[in-house]
Amino acid sequence: MRRFVCAALLLLAAERPAHAQWPWQLLGLLKPDGRIDPSLLTECSGLVQSLRYAGIFWALGDSGSGAVIVPVTAGGALAPGWEQPVRVEGWKNYDWEDLALDGKGNLIIADVGNNSGKRKQLMLHFVREPKPGDTVVRPTRTLRVHYEDQKEPSPDFDCEAVFCADGRIFFLTKRRSDGQTVLYRLSGDSPHRSNALRRVSSFPVGGMVTAADVSPDGKMVAVLTYTSVWVFDYDRRKGDIFNGTVRRMPFFAWQGEGLAFDGNNSLVVANEQGQLFRVALDDFETVKP
């Protein structure tokens, strides 16, 4: 335990952006409110709240979990009406890292993990949100995507955070070199060729981004790192999240990998082990420029 806490404190120290003026503070060790049964999902890597079914969240894991998505309650139990995870037919889980909703009744499965930076075919799978009792779902379409400014292999082009706002799909990179995250926007939706991800802006989160989600009212984007949750105002005119008010809460949740809004005033964080933590936006502090 002591070894993990010390490591987390070092991460927090490294995660302080150069422009931030808030003082050093101890990590808040969150207490879990529930846990996704390991028999349903291993190595949880993505989470999003259902827009069709109140109180239900969809979760997925990386390659070790197989090609399944799991409907769970806020406490981590299998959602009522389902007897098992829903298998995604026709595609392998190469490195599924996040889930998003496109506002049209579709879940977006982001197969975009790229730890080594050598992967050339990143993919987004669109599936209709399954109904209670469904055991299999097949993507209605799949898009291949690539970073337009990636000239050579680099782990700075890894990504675990995808969200959709105003019908536009955004990616936040998990950079290892400088504590920045870069915001990209998908350009194009051709099923016949790879579609470019165009750089929008960047921000010094001071750590590695592992998840993101947009609030139900579309006004905020929450971004998760291993030792913080950030909340940014979404600029609809510019399609950017780094132009407005910035809020932050430091915490430690044992390798947080999934993040979802639960209404407009609270968030649910999932760690790799499937533990679920709830945080209120009232507990966040504004970061001054």
Would you kindly provide a brief summary of this structure?
The protein is mainly beta. The protein has one helix at 2-14; strands at 34-35, 44-49, 56-61, 68-73, 86-88, 96-101, 106-111, 122-128, 136-137, 141-147, 159-165, 168-173, 181-187, 195-203, 209-214, 220-225, 228-233, 246-250, 256-261, 266-271, 275-280, 285-286.
Overview of this protein structure:
The protein is mainly β and 289 residues long. It has a single domain (2-286), classed as Neuraminidase (6 Propeller). The chain is built from one helix and 22 strands. The strands form four sheets. It has an eight-stranded mixed beta sheet with strand order 6-7-8-10-14-13-12-11, with no helix packed on it. 44% of the residues are buried. Mean pLDDT is 89; it is low at 1-26.
Short descriptors:
4% helix; five-stranded mixed sheet; mainly beta; disordered N terminus; 1 helix; 289 residues; Neuraminidase; eight-stranded mixed sheet
